């Protein structure tokens, strides 16, 4: 399979860079008039994918909202992967997995290996057991043409305590993660398959991501307070690789298909005015 970085670049060029999160939390299900159950979950997925599947480049289902229903919820998540694949959009599984050794290898097999029912185009992973602990996922992604998005600068208020900490070599932890991602992506064209997650609300951080040469997922647009213009502040010269993501700003317009499509189109237009 063509490397994820190349496939994502093509999808962004053809459909625009917007990523829509699929976050069926109880309040959102209720606002759509759906039950907080696996049945409601499936209806939510059906409506969202049918409305937006041919419009957006990539979806980001939040695994936790499916896991909370146990095997029935995971079954909906597995069907979601099939449904999205049929539309030509990509799927980034937001699972934020991170561990060491054989356990990290098992996570890699679950989300990145051929034939797994949860295999996605990419998965979010956490480097805070050390970037080297991610190697099983990096290896599996490279082998199967999939990608990973590594948490670097998150928008939660607790994040800076760890992410802004300074290492013995004088670099912030987040900078070291960005540098490691850049090393993994060296020589890739049009961009590598090791991305970073950097919140659109983090402002000026002093972390240089110009050398990452991979996709930069930017959650936080809309309901979380960030605007498309904030992307300039956070990403600077790396704007071309930014993948802005939103969920509530688009999903709150459902369950009307037209409402979802209009909301996604408006958000995409705002993003294009900034990213070009």
Automatic annotation (TrEMBL):
Keyword field: Decarboxylase, Lyase, Pyrimidine biosynthesis
One GO biological process term: 'de novo' UMP biosynthetic process
SUPFAM superfamilies to which the protein is assigned, alphabetical: Ribulose-phoshate binding barrel
Top-level EC class: lyase
Family matches, as Pfam families: OMPdecase
NCBIfam families: pyrF_sub2
Annotated protein name in UniProt: Orotidine 5'-phosphate decarboxylase
């Amino acid at each position: 399979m063509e490397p994820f970085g190349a496939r994502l670049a093509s999808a962004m060029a053809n459909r625009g860079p917007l990523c829509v999160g699929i976050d069926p939390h109880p309040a959102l299900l209720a606002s759509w008039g759906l039950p907080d159950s696996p049945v409601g979950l499936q209806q939510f997925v059906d409506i969202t994918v049918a409305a937006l599947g041919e419009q957006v480049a990539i979806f980001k289902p939040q695994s936790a909202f499916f896991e909370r229903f146990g095997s029935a919820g995971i079954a909906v998540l597995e069907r979601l992967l099939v449904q999205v694949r049929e539309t030509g959009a990509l799927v980034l599984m937001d699972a934020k997995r991170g561990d060491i050794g054989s356990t990290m290898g098992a996570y890699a097999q679950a989300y990145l290996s051929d034939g797994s029912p949860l295999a996605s185009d990419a998965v979010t992973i956490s480097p805070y057991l050390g970037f080297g602990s991610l190697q099983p996922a990096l290896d599996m992604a490279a082998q199967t043409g999939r990608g990973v998005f590594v948490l670097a600068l998150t928008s939660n208020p607790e994040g800076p305590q760890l992410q802004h900490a300074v290492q013995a070599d004088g670099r912030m932890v987040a900078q070291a993660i960005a540098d490691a991602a850049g090393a993994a992506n060296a020589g890739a064209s049009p961009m590598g398959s090791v991305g970073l997650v950097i919140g659109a609300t983090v402002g000026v951080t002093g972390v240089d991501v110009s050398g990452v040469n991979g996709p930069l997922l930017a959650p936080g647009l809309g309901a979380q307070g960030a605007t498309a213009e904030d992307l300039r502040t956070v990403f600077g010269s790396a704007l071309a690789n930014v993948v802005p993501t939103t969920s509530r700003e688009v999903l709150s317009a459902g369950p009307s298909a037209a409402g979802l499509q209009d909301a996604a189109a408006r958000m995409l237009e705002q993003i294009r005015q900034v990213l070009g």
